[in-house]
From TrEMBL:
SUPFAM superfamilies: Dimeric alpha+beta barrel (SSF54909). Keywords: DNA-binding. It comes from the Bacteria. Coiled coil: none annotated. PANTHER family: LEUCINE-RESPONSIVE REGULATORY PROTEIN, TRANSCRIPTIONAL REGULATOR AZLB. The keyword Nucleotide-binding does not apply. This is DNA-binding Lrp family transcriptional regulator. GO terms for biological process: response to amino acid. The lineage of its organism: Bacteria, Bacillati, Actinomycetota, Actinomycetes, Propionibacteriales. GO terms for cellular component: cytosol. Gene3D superfamilies: 3.30.70.920. The keyword NADP does not apply.
Length: 93
């Protein structure tokens, strides 16, 4: 699974509608409204690198109200949840 983190700038008066439309796109797993210089963060999860272009360039960027995006590809994930799950498998020293 390939994960892309997409920073989205949107028309301020349309942020809720833009977020909802992005969240409904195939390949988008989550959308967060955030503070700071960007308005939304979208998590895109796909099987192939080419699919990132399909989701971001061909669909997400064309959502009315999206003014700019910046995409970051994740290459390794670190998660407290993942570590806790590994220890709960019953593995003992």
């Amino acid at each position: 699974m390939i994960t892309a983190i997409v920073f989205v700038q949107a028309d301020v008066d349309r942020i809720p509608e833009v977020a909802q439309q992005i969240a409904e796109l195939d390949g988008v797993s989550e959308v967060y409204s955030v503070t700071g210089e960007i308005d939304l963060i979208a998590l895109v999860r796909v099987r192939e690198h080419d699919e990132i272009a399909d989701v971001v360039a061909d669909r997400l960027n064309k959502v009315p109200g999206v003014t700019a995006t910046e995409t970051h590809i994740a290459f390794r994930a670190y998660s407290r949840h993942d570590l806790e799950a590994a220890f709960s498998l019953g593995i003992e020293d």
